[in-house]
Amino acid sequence: MNFSFKNKVALITGAGSGMGLTTAREFAKNGASVVLADIIEEAVNTAAEQLVKDGHKAIAVCCDVSNEQQVKEMVDKTIKTFGHLDAAFNNAGIQVPMTDTADLAASDYDLVMGVNLRGVWLCMKYELLRMREQGSGTIVNCSSLGGLVGGAGRAAYHAAKHGVLGLTKCAAIEYAPKGIRINAVCPGTIDTPMVHSMIESGDLSKEEAISLMPIGRLGRQDEIADAVLWLSSQASSFVVGQAISVDGGYTIQ
């Protein structure tokens, strides 16, 4: 898809690899100055350096999205470097091994909630403070098909991703009158490093995952990026507070 983000600034978390990195590259290709944030410093530095070599404007920020001070500093650095913030993709997330709800360790529950839910809230908080001053901006939060359905063995992950949709809807109502649009994407099983690691660990069967999708294949990272860029563009100017499923038909069955 072709979009123009010339003179726009986009912030992407979880941008060291996977869907975040692909989305950052697409924003850059379409003219945006991009801020790539990730907890893995080497990965995000390498990604940003490559974008700069390719002629784009990009910076890297090492950030643990569950840490409020680091999130504040991430947004402050964005403003200090580029002067404004027009689009944000709050994508950083983690997964823990499958386990029955009764056997889920409190530490694992807290870890998933800290990154996948608290992290999205913190990012929105500091992004919105800047966007509210501007009177403009778009935010796309990364939920999951796990934000729409249940899944045995994945209570913490699904609870957090359901929570992301609640945050998205509430904030969307608050900020639409202020010129800021907030939506969410709900990726299905996408060909990413996280999914590869789940397959290798035995937590996910690739064949079973494909069989559950009417489209008959895993999703591609660029298909998520396209949805995020659309939600961040004027092409979706009347779309507010939506959870857009990009899942090959999984959730319509």
TrEMBL record:
Q: Which Pfam families match?
A: adh_short_C2
Lineage here is: Bacteria, Bacillati, Bacillota, Clostridia, Lachnospirales
Q: Where is the Ketoreductase domain?
A: 8-188
Q: Which UniProt keywords apply?
A: NAD, Oxidoreductase
The answer to whether keyword Oxidoreductase applies is yes
Family per record: Belongs to the short-chain dehydrogenases/reductases (SDR) family.
Q: What is this protein called?
A: Short-chain dehydrogenase/reductase SDR
Matching entries from InterPro entries are given as: KR_dom, NAD(P)-bd_dom_sf, SDR_fam
Q: Name one GO biological process term.
A: bile acid metabolic process
